[in-house]
Specification:
alpha/beta; Rossmann fold; 243 residues; 10 helices; 23% strand; 7-stranded mixed β-sheet; single chain
Amino acid sequence: MSDKVSFGDQLVSPEEKTRRVGAVFSSVARRYDIMNDLMSGGMHRLWKDRFVGRVKPRSGEEILDMAGGTGDVAFRMARRGAKVTVADINGDMLEVGKERARRRGLTGLSWKVENAEALTFDNATFDAYTIVFGIRNVTDIPAALREAHRVLKRGGRFYCMEFSASDWPGFSNLYDAWASNVIPRLGKAIANDQESYRYLVESIRRFPRPNAFRKMIADAGFVRPAAEPMLGGLVTIHSGWKI
């Protein structure tokens, strides 16, 4: 790919974006979950519970949790009996997840360094594919969606939860001001990294609105694409089926 892509509000080469995103998550890995609590007021826990409720993981089924990093979503699905492969392009995030799993006494999880745009798994491997707050950091999102479709079995389900801008005018303005001014400062105070959190805020603003992303899911081959917005679309659960 020779075209420029967005890294937050900057335009960079695809290769540079991949490198920079890797550096962001290596930098914030150890404080990632604490920052999630602070940035969302703890609401990310409720969103993830709701998300897993939509996925409906079942005992014995194979689920790929892409960009699963620190294991928050994977742990919820594993507790329901699913066999979860936690995949992330960033090995530092996976190490944090493995450590958290050990502390909780969770076994049966697989951990793999994987690029969402070029997965190493065989066709039709998984019953479900999940990705939470990760796809906006992928350099080539359509490629990642096509790979998700490829590795799912027939009848497999795709679920994604992601941030975007809110449609609620008053709330949208308040959130934007808070995110722009407070989150980078929290990043500086808690993770000693202001710029990484500035990028994360900018990446949310640039992610497609729910209807636009729903079309991208359909273009990747999924049927019955759906979007379930929360807080006016600030957070949305996206889904689709492979037939």
